[in-house]
């Protein structure tokens, strides 16, 4: 079809390497394990992988603390394994987009070791150092995302360094042009190796001014992104997607507008944070509210209607399993997993599938802090306990929104540990792996995988799915998400009942269509008009003139 970037017709698949497939029995997923599972991705039809970090790392934050940007962590494999993954994936038409964490590195990175050993070393100024505050304590009251202060003292220097995240993740000082040049050089080193692009971790933070208390979307952010584009992306057929928790529909085009020469897409999180308590955040989840959910997604469809491009997702390695958070992980698990996929995959933008989402994997249940592996939960439990909070209250939040829910091992079969490892897994496998696993789901022609494969195929093959204009409908309807896509006189009408009750849905005029059933999770329909009796979690799409 018309010359559009490859990633506007492709679906991404996020792999969290530690939990995807172990190949050597040490209980930790690895790159040879990923290579062994590429046929699963090829069968799904995804066009690229977003690979969470596999670089050398002490694993304080599961690889989001990089100690050598040009080395693969031995637990995951070698650079040869990485080259093999790029080649094997490429042979299946799948690009490898790597996670790049450059807002901070690890405190075990050579740069930081030199910075501490010798204040006059050039690497010292790759980081943000400040003298103690007037009381001898941290320079400001900034807090770490993982609990505790965002400043840590290096006694031998008598100075504090800034870390938005763990003390093991010192922020890099992007004000330093030598640091920026070193990052750009490393990015080109990877791009020259044949990767398909980057997912840029918390990239909205690199323009920070900690003295002014400005952390996200600082004054230098866009100049730095334009410089990065010129230094590493210009002229390459890559995909760049920024993780930007602070972005809004009003600021999105500053990142991904066609004439901005910065990034191709950004991950926004308004449909996630809409259900976080305003004060207590994710640890005190608000009940799902469909009109709020729809209003957010529809607002983003409008905002990027003529420029920019949406990244569409409900799950990732930081988020709870979507069928538990937004669907029904009990009686209607399979059908609601398909309904959520239909709702997201037929919007305008590039959908991302998180490993396990394609078989309707669910949250797990934590009963003891010893089961936590995520530094964020560990850090926030320490603060909650210090505040005298009860464990069961904190566990409610962890079981609803804790990041470890997404990090339990991929469930491949009903073998021990779900076929993920023959060893002792680094994190507990969800007990429901005996029923919920790839082998079982694939055996069902009506399984969740089959539904995802079809949706992914529609994006690849039907221009109305990839490029049709979005039209919102029934925005206020409390149970049904309905919208249309329109292109060249054709309409694709999408209707999704996102609740466990039957619903009688009066079709708005602008949504009416008669024609071909493109997708259905109950019975195929060819008509959208009048009043429809929708079954619980029934979802379908009909295309016609
Ligand atoms: O996440 C950014 C981030 O801040 C999230 O951890 C989020 O704020 C948190 O889950 C509370 O909702 C990115 C990575 O995706 C995450 O895995 C890393 O831990 C973090 O940055 C630091 O690199
Ligand atoms: Ca392993």
Mean pLDDT: 97
Biggest sheet record? 8 strands, parallel
Tally the helices.
16
Rg (CA only): 23 Å
Uncertain spans: none
- Span of the ends, CA to CA: 20 Å
Number of strands: 24
Q: What topology, given as strand order, has the largest sheet?
A: 11-10-9-5-2-1-15-14
Helix content: 25-40%
Q: Give the percentage of residues in beta strands.
A: 15-25%
What is the 3D shape?
globular
The helix/strand class is alpha/beta
Bound molecules: 1-O-alpha-D-glucopyranosyl-D-fructose, calcium ion
Domain Glycosyl hydrolase family 13 catalytic: 14-407
GO biological process, one term: oligosaccharide catabolic process
Keywords: Glycosidase, Hydrolase
Enzyme class: hydrolase
Write the layout of secondary structure elements.
Layout: E1 12-15, H1 31-36, H2 38-44, E2 48-51, E3 55-56, E4 68-72, H3 79-91, E5 95-100, H4 110-117, E6 129-130, E7 151-154, E8 159-162, H5 177-191, E9 197-200, H6 221-233, E10 239-243, H7 252-256, E11 265-267, H8 270-273, E12 276-277, E13 281-285, H9 290-303, E14 311-312, H10 322-325, H11 333-345, E15 350-354, H12 375-386, H13 391-401, H14 438-443, H15 448-461, H16 463-467, E16 469-473, E17 480-487, E18 490-497, E19 503-506, E20 513-514, E21 516-520, E22 527-528, E23 531-534, E24 539-544
Parallel strand pairs: 1-2, 1-15, 2-5, 5-9, 9-10, 10-11, 14-15
Antiparallel strand pairs: 3-4, 6-8, 7-8, 12-13, 16-17, 17-18, 18-24, 19-23, 20-22, 21-24
Helix pairs in contact: 5-6, 11-15
Bound molecules: 1-O-alpha-D-glucopyranosyl-D-fructose and calcium ion.
1-O-alpha-D-glucopyranosyl-D-fructose binds near residues 202, 243, 376 and 403.
């Amino acid at each position: 079809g018309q010359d559009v970037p490859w990633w506007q017709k492709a679906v991404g698949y996020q792999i969290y390497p530690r939990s995807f497939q172990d190949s050597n029995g040490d209980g930790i997923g690895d790159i040879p394990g990923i290579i062994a599972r590429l046929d699963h991705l090829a069968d799904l039809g995804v066009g690229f992988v977003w690979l969470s970090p596999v670089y050398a790392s002490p694993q304080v934050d599961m690889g989001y603390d990089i100690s050598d940007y040009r080395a693969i962590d031995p637990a995951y494999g070698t650079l040869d394994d990485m080259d093999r993954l790029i080649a094997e994936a490429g042979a299946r038409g799948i690009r490898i987009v790597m996670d790049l964490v450059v807002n901070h590195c690890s405190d075990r990175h050579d740069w930081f070791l030199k910075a501490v050993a010798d204040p006059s070393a050039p690497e010292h100024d790759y980081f943000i150092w400040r003298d103690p505050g007037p009381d001898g304590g941290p320079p400001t009251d900034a807090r770490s995302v993982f609990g505790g202060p965002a400043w840590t003292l290096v006694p031998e220097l008598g100075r504090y360094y800034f870390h938005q995240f763990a003390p093991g993740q010192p922020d890099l000082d992007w004000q330093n042009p030598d640091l920026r040049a070193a990052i750009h050089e490393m990015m080109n080193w990877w791009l020259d190796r044949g990767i398909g692009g980057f997912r840029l971790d918390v990239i909205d933070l690199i323009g920070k001014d900690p003295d002014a208390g400005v952390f996200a979307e600082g004054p230098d952010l866009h100049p730095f992104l334009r410089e990065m584009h010129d230094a590493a992306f210009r002229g390459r057929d890559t995909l760049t997607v920024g993780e930007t928790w602070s972005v809004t529909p009003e600021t999105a085009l500053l990142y991904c507008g066609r004439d901005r020469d910065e990034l191709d897409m950004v991950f926004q999180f308004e449909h996630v944070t809409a259900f976080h308590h305003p004060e207590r955040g994710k640890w005190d989840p608000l009940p799902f509210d469909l009109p709020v959910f729809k209003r957010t997604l529809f607002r983003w469809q409008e905002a990027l209607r003529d420029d920019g491009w949406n990244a569409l997702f409900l799950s990732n390695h930081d988020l709870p399993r979507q069928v538990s958070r937004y669907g029904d992980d009990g009686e209607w698990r399979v059908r609601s997993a398909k309904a959520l996929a239909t709702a997201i995959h037929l919007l305008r933008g590039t959908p991302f599938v998180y490993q396990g989402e394609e078989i309707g994997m669910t949250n797990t249940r934590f009963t003891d802090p010893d089961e936590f592996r995520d530094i964020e939960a560990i850090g926030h439990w320490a603060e909650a306990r210090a505040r005298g909070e009860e464990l069961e209250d904190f566990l409610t939040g962890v079981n609803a929104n804790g990041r470890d829910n997404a990090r339990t091992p991929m469930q491949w079969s009903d073998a021990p540990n779900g076929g993920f490892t023959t060893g002792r897994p680094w994190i507990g496998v969800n007990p429901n792996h005996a029923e919920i696993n790839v082998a079982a789901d694939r055996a069902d022609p009506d399984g969740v995988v089959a539904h995802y494969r079809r949706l992914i195929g529609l994006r690849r093959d039907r221009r109305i799915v990839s490029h049709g204009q979005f039209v919102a409908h029934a925005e206020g309807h409390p149970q049904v998400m309905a919208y249309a896509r329109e292109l060249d006189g054709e309409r694709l009408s999408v209707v999704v009942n996102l609740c466990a009750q039957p619903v009688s849905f009066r079709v708005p005029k602008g949504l009416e269509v008669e024609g071909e059933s493109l997708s259905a999770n109950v019975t195929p329909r060819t008509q959208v008009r009048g009043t429809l009796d929708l079954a619980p979690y029934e979802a379908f799409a009909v295309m016609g003139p």
